[in-house]
Design goal:
The chain has helices at 12-24, 43-48, 67-76, 78-81, 85-88, 95-105, 107-114, 126-135, 143-159, 173-188, 196-208, 212-234, and strands spanning 3-7, 28-32, 56-59, 62-65, 117-119, 122-123. Helix 1 (12-24) links the parallel strand 1 (3-7) and strand 2 (28-32). The longest helix is centred in the C-terminal third of the chain and has 23 residues, at 212-234. A 4-stranded mixed β-sheet has the order 2-1-3-4, with helices on one face. It has a two-stranded antiparallel ribbon with strand order 5-6. The protein starts with a strand and ends with a helix. It is globular and about 45 Å long. It has 2 domains: 3-85, Glutaredoxin, CATH 3.40.30; 90-232, Glutathione S-transferase Yfyf (Class Pi), Chain A, domain 2 (Up-down Bundle), CATH 1.20.1050. It is an alpha+beta fold. Homodimer. This is Glutathione S-transferase 1-like. Residues 1-82 form the GST N-terminal domain.
């Protein structure tokens, strides 16, 4: 497949897609999208993705956005279903088991949009926090946001009572999404050490996901440095 991924540094969904790409051993062309210069609002990009979000996958003219859809597509293609795709996805499961795992595939959206609601019509997910600090240049993280992020940690802690990973006892594409969300939330509310199952889960992902450092940590570190620089300027 001749794949192109449109990306930004630091984005949890982009990193989730990068983890999947690395797990599958795919060769991908990367195209950086500068959000600060509003390249995602230019006509050429909007033609690919009217939602003007990243990541965006271009597979020989077939366009997908949303990291969940992209990862599901990548592991479901014929060449991958004969390799590691069934392990990362749920192809070999019975319909009831597969349905439960599909629910957990979007757990990152559940914890962000349901658990971290800020006000009517406004969601306080990691994207909103990034916007608040880096784009809107606010100087604080509201206490209510901190409380709700702790609720997220508690929720994931509960899910991890049953399995080693988020949907079963081996890595699936659901883990790519949730680990990138958790590690981003930890930048804002660095209290994951208070949740032993979550902390152990992140370490398992770090140790067992292929190219975790390159696919997740390096981009996360870029975002963390930008966040800390912004907070340091705000304190002057």
């Amino acid at each position: 497949m001749a794949l192109t991924l449109y990306y930004v540094h630091g984005s949890p969904p982009v990193r989730a897609t990068q983890l999947c790409i690395r797990a599958l051993g795919l060769e991908v062309n990367y195209e950086f999208v500068n959000l600060f210069q509003k390249e995602n609002l230019q006509p050429a990009f909007l033609e690919k993705n009217p939602m003007h979000s990243v990541p965006v996958l271009d597979d020989n003219g077939f366009i997908l956005w949303d990291s969940h859809a992209i990862n599901e597509y990548l592991v479901s293609t014929p060449i991958m279903t004969s390799m590691v795709g069934p392990i990362l996805y749920f192809k070999n499961d019975s319909p009831p088991v597969r349905s439960v795992k599909l629910c957990l595939l979007s757990l990152d959206l559940t914890v962000q949009l349901k658990q971290v609601t800020f006000a009517p019509g406004e969601t306080l997910d990691t994207a909103f926090l990034k916007f608040r600090i880096l784009f809107a240049k606010k100087k604080d993280i509201p206490e209510e946001n901190i409380r709700r992020t702790r609720d997220v940690y508690s929720l994931v802690e509960k899910f991890l009572e049953k399995w080693t990973y988020i949907a079963c006892d081996h890595i699936t594409i659901a883990d790519f999404s949730i680990v990138t969300t958790l590690t981003t939330l930890e930048v804002f509310v660095p209290e994951i050490s208070n949740y032993p199952k979550v902390a152990a889960y992140i370490e398992r992902c770090r140790a067992n996901m292929k190219d975790y450092q390159e696919a997740n940590q390096e981009s996360l570190d870029i975002f963390k440095a930008a966040f800390q620089a912004r907070m340091n300027r705000s304190s002057l």
